[in-house]
Amino acid sequence: MPELPEVETVRRTLELAIGNEEIVEVVENYSKIITNDIFEFKKSIQNQKIHRIDRMGKYLIFILDTHTMIIHLRMEGKFFIKTNEPVLKHEHIVFKFKSGRELRYHDVRKFGTITLLPLETYLESYPLNKLALEPKDINIHKFFEVLQKKRIEIKAVLLDQHIVSGLGNIYVDETLFLSKIHPTRLANTISLDEAAKIIKSAIQVLDKATALGGTTIRSYTSSLGVHGRFQNELNVHMRKDLPCPICQTKIIKMKIKGRGTYVCPSCQD
Ligand SMILES: [Zn+2]
């Protein structure tokens, strides 16, 4: 599943590749990806120019003339840019540009969403109005207050996109490892110092992963031909039975809320 660094990598690549393109037509092969009425969507997006591509949490935001297109890739959504090639089975939405090039939205699992919203109100509208802050923008005291009210595992809290935006399974494991906190610790037992350490580690992990183009592993292969390199930097995630890079203890794998979770049983408590 693409997390913040992968989505940011897609954003940068897309903006360079298709910033300034004008959309002349949209062809849908599976219209449920689009959450608007499909006829309204196609009519409103016609002849709109892509001015910029922003990102908030894991949402990509295409800034057009009068609208914004908000995209969430969910499990396996990805983009390809093509010209004059047959449309493949999982290329559900095709954006045709004036230049003759096409942006194709590909999604095997079909969980991704595309929503068109008016430019004036998109920030106050669902889904962006429900989005929590990213670690770099979080106030540590407010974060600590939220943790104190939660009697659930810290990992589950960090995965909740209403509390912290942009951290997913890979980066939560890495963040908790750097913070030396066990993922099963109940959130209300985390001290203010530990909360600060979690936020600091999350920022560090996300910055490094973004700089390396994200993580390309089995659960998320490349979009637009960009392969991330953060998989080579993982300390615990996907490293079951391998030695901890700090203390050499074998990394263990456990399940938390159904998610594969990797821990150094000696460094993290
Ligand atoms: Zn260790």
Task: Describe what you observe in this structure.
With 269 residues, the chain is α+β, with helices and mostly antiparallel strands. It folds into 2 domains: 4-130, MutM-like, N-terminal (N-terminal domain of MutM-like DNA repair proteins, Alpha-Beta Barrel), CATH 3.20.190.10; 135-263, Helicase, Ruva Protein, domain 3, CATH 1.10.8.50. Helices cover 26% and strands 22% of the residues. The protein has helices spanning 4-18, 38-45, 140-148, 154-159, 169-179, 192-211, and strands at 22-28, 48-49, 52-56, 59-63, 67-72, 78-82, 91-97, 102-106, 113-118, 252-256, 259-263. The strands form 3 sheets. Strands 2-1-7-8-6 form a 5-stranded antiparallel beta sheet. The protein has a 4-stranded antiparallel beta sheet with strand order 3-4-5-9, covered by helices on one side. Strand 3 (52-56) and strand 4 (59-63) form a beta hairpin. The radius of gyration is 20 Å and the shape is elongated. The relative contact order is 0.15. The model has no long low-confidence stretch (mean pLDDT 94).
N-to-C CA distance: 27 Å
Q: What is the string of helix and strand elements?
A: HEHEEEEEEEEHHHHEE
Q: Beta-strand percentage?
A: 15-25%
Beta strand count: 11
The small-molecule ligands in this entry are: zinc ion
CATH topology of the largest domain: Helicase, Ruva Protein, domain 3
Low-confidence stretches: none
Order of strands across the main sheet:
2-1-7-8-6
Gyration radius (Cα, Å) is 20 Å
Give the name of the CATH architecture of the largest domain.
Orthogonal Bundle
Secondary-structure content class: alpha+beta
| The first-level CATH class name of the largest domain | Mainly Alpha
| Biggest sheet details | 5 strands, antiparallel
Kindly state the mean pLDDT as a whole number?
A: 94
Number of helices: 6
Shape: elongated
Helix content: 25-40%
Number of domains: 2
